[in-house]
Amino acid sequence: MKTETVSYQCGETSCRGYLAYDDSKSGKRPCVIIAHAWKGLDNFVREKANALVEQGYVAFAADLYGNGSQAESNDEAAALMMPLFLDRKLLRERIVSAYETAAGFDQTDPKRMGAMGFCFGGLTVIELLRSGVDLKGVVSFHGLLGHQLGEMKANIVPNGKRLTGSLLILHGNDDPMVPLTDVISLQKEMTNAEVDWQMHIYGNTMHAFTNPAADDAENGMLYNPVAEKRSFQAMSNFFNEVLL
Description:
This protein is of the alpha/beta class and 244 residues long.
């Protein structure tokens, strides 16, 4: 396996993504873009990229914040995330730049592009789908599904004229950051856009259920190894169907 840091631009913002692929193979392969959670492009995301390579994909972890920025605390993470959560045009630009970069790699088949994301990254890959770029499939792990956090409402932008690709949403039933109204609203939106969507809801499961470092049940963030295993199997089955 070969890994490298890839520099790319989104407007005036310099980004540093993480590319992983099997350098023993020739020819173009399907590519999966990974959108990180609110603390930035960290080892958790790199590990997921490496695991995708073992399944036969090129993997590219996007740098949504630019300059490889990572947060050390929740307050720092919120300060990095909220401007993008609130400005959906900017968020779309950031993830589309990563998509265009990944589609141009020598190893990538640009006709077989997918994406997956965690928490804030789950929202981000749904925005990539909404943009209308050519995608085969998108997976959201415990993603933020709505346009409002607390009293703060996002400035949304219209969807692309035609949304391509399927959508798999992996959601914890007890996630306090995603009210049922957000779940229903997204379902209706995707149905009206004629997207092939499915949602797996895991009972007794909170936010951040795939992250072993999540240990804050009081605030609704808790690792769940059973839901983690089930969700990654669902992701694997989904990508096998739409990308391979």
